Amino acid sequence: RSFSGLFAGCELTASTKSYTFQVDEEDDSDHILALSVVCLTDGAKDECNVVEVVGRNHENQEIAVPVANLKLSCQPLLSLDNFKLQPPVTFRLAAGSGPVHLTGWHRIMHREDVSFEDDDDLSEEEEEEQELAPIMPAKK
């Protein structure tokens, strides 16, 4: 089962240059943050505003990747088509003074096994398909 909710977003400005999205370390669910839109908002100057995503690689080293370069006169908004990230992730205004607003989706995928009877979200057709799926023995 999974749950998707709107990521209320964050705003990066000259005084608040970064925002970190993180989840509780005790939570054993899989979390995905999907960025949909990055845009300049009221009060933005006509300057380059570079937004970076800061994460960690498999060696736990910090990596910063620019995802948007916005300018009021030529590109005030960028659609990122649900660019998927794994929390914790930090959004940073690397250049410019903003304000830049980011929005997206937060999806939580629960790992525990849930019986079909407990899942009210499934339609009857989906339930039948799941109940009819054969369980294959493991190949040795």
TrEMBL record:
Subcellular localization: Nucleus, Nucleolus
Domain of life per record: Eukaryota
Pfam families: Nucleoplasmin
Residue ranges of every copy of the Nucleoplasmin core domain listed in the record: 9-107
InterPro entries (UniProt xref): Nucleoplasmin (IPR004301), Nucleoplasmin_core_dom (IPR024057), Nucleoplasmin_core_dom_sf (IPR036824)
Bias kind Acidic residues: ranges: 116-131
GO biological process, one term: chromatin remodeling
Region (Disordered): 116-140
Keyword Phosphoprotein: yes
Annotated keywords: Acetylation, Chaperone, Methylation, Nucleus, Phosphoprotein
GO cellular component terms given for this protein: cytoplasm; nucleolus; nucleoplasm
GO molecular function: chromatin binding; histone binding; RNA binding
SUPFAM superfamilies: Nucleoplasmin-like core domain
Family: Belongs to the nucleoplasmin family.
Subunit structure: Interacts with NPM (via N-terminus). Forms a pentamer with NPM at a ratio 4:1 (NPM3/NPM). Two pentamers form a decamer.
Function: Plays a role in the regulation of diverse cellular processes such as ribosome biogenesis, chromatin remodeling or protein chaperoning. Modulates the histone chaperone function and the RNA-binding activity of nucleolar phosphoprotein B23/NPM. Efficiently mediates chromatin remodeling when included in a pentamer containing NPM3 and NPM.
PANTHER family: NUCLEOPLASMIN, NUCLEOPLASMIN-3
Name this protein carries in UniProt: Nucleoplasmin-3
Name of the gene this protein is made from: Npm3
